[in-house]
Amino acid sequence: MEANENQKRNGRRTGIDAETEKIISMLIAERIACSGREWGKTYPEEERQKTELIERWEALLKEQRPEILRENSSFADSIIAVTRGELEGLYLFGLKDGVRLMRALLRV
What we know:
Layout: H1 3-10, H2 18-42, H3 44-64, H4 69-107
Helix pairs in contact: 2-3, 2-4
């Protein structure tokens, strides 16, 4: 999604040009991916369960309703896109909170 579309969708006006917004978005996406990998290492049983659940669902669809397998994939991609936007928002909120806290501590 283009940065300007993202800003419109979220109703944000950051004053940042589209290229900078794109770079920031890519950096955040990378940090979120790193966080996900770290979570998988820290909680291997939960990661295994998640993977197993997805594989069982896909096998069930393939066996019972192979004609909707493509729609299921499209639906999952849509959910992931929405979730990615939510995670980016949380990440930015955390950064802003961290900067605010750091400034407050530096004033003390």
